Every structure is written in structure tokens, then in C-alpha cells.
Amino acid sequence: xxxxxxxxxxxxxxxxxxxxxxxxxxxxxxxxxxxxxxxxxxxxxxxxxxxxxxxxxxxxxxxxxxxxxxxxxxxxxxxxxxxxxxxxxxxxxxxxxxxxxxxxxxxxxxxxxxxxxxxxxxxxxxxxxxxxxxxxxxxxxxxxxxxxxxxxxxxxxxxxxxxxxxxxxxxxxxxxxxxxxxxxxxxxx
Length: 189
Fold this sequence. Notes:
Blueprint: E1 5-8, E2 11-14, H1 20-42, H2 49-65, H3 75-93, H4 103-110, H5 115-132, H6 138-144, H7 160-170, H8 175-182, H9 185-188
Antiparallel strand pairs: 1-2
Helix pairs in contact: 1-2, 1-3, 2-3, 3-4
């Protein structure tokens, strides 16, 4: 039986490779946790920000970014993920959006890197794993395969490789250099 989507190891896999629904599910799970913790935990002054940050790092952030290695994010998805992250961080500090405190200041005060940067790091780490894999493994074969079918009309969809190229470019390196560096696991870290 052929289906349009299915869940495998907690990640929603879709036929078209679209990640919007998976990202929305991650956001939904993070929102459920946020609302559970909001009244009982995050607003309590007796609980230190250090403890709240420990919960953010060990529970909330992994729920929000689970499976992020394979995401092909659109600007709208990035914006939604960042908004969900900032909602939690602002609640930890007791700051609302009406206080007009910039996201960078909130992150600096709590000592947290942007969650999108963390997802990009996950993707780069996965790129390194893929590069070091043996050529006979199915995962690497699928990644390196080039379909021979005729492409449909319109602009080609942005692929994971396209997104990775943009990440590498923003960090001042090229695809070829990254492939070479990622062969050495210690150098790639």
C-alpha cells in the first residue's frame, strides 16, 4: 500500500519531502509542554532561572528540534520555531513582548544560542556523518542519488542540499571544502 505520509521513529515522513507538517507537529508538542509548565513552573519566583534553563535545555529544546537534522526549513518555519523558542525564554525572565526587549538581549541574558543556529549545527553534524558513511549504505545511496525522471514545470523545490549550501556559505566555506573537512571527524567538530 502506498501512503502520502507515515510516522517513523517519531518523525513524520511525507512523499513530497515537505517538512511543514513535521515542523508544525514539533511546534504543537512544544506548545503543549509550554502550557503545561507555564502556570505551575515557569512563573514561580521560588524556582531559579538556572533550574528553568535546565528544563529548557533538557526537555523543551529537544522536543522542539527533534529530527531537525533532516529538515528543509522555509523562512516561515524558521520564524515559527524562533517565536516558540522566545516565548519560553521570555517567560523564564518574566518579560512580555510589550516590554519591547530584543530577542538578542533575552538570549544574552540567559546565555543561549539561537535555536535556528542549533538546528543548522545538527544539519552540519548529519552532513559529516553522511559524508563519512560507506558508499554501500542505503542512506548514503539515497542522498547521493540523482533521479532520472523529467522535472515538472516551475521553480525546482529547495532541497536539503540547497539549504546546507546556504548554511555553509553563511559560515564562509564551500561545499567542496566542507566535504573534504568532514572526512576527518575531529576536524569537522
